[in-house]
User: Fold this.
Amino acid sequence: MWFLIVMILSAFVCYSIASAKHRATGNWFLSGLFLGPVAVLILLLLPDLATKEEIPGVSKKCPQCGEVVKSESRICRFCGYDFIWPDGWREEDHISEREWIEERRKRLLRGN
Ligand SMILES: [Zn+2]
Assistant:
């Protein structure tokens, strides 16, 4: 009987650790149920999936706040940093704000 309790407890422990490590909770709940404390140990050794490192083609690091966002992001979801028109672009190209807004609008309509 205690064996069953350990397995069920492991399933719930796995579920909460998986949730904290941004991993598949359902899969880890089942792993805990069948593997018991072994699954808990494996899960504890695995890294958190919410990584702070950028993966080329998948994610990129925001130069302003340092958070990792999806590589196709146009605007940082943490700080609002603009990846299309980085800060300083206007000064470098010496164009008016009106031209900048118009150019930006055209680019957004074209989808790049
Ligand atoms: Zn940012």
About this structure: Residues 2-45 form one domain. The CA atoms of residues 34 and 48 lie 22 Å apart. Helices lie at 2-20, 25-35, 37-45, 89-93, 97-110. Residues 2-20 form the longest helix (19 residues).
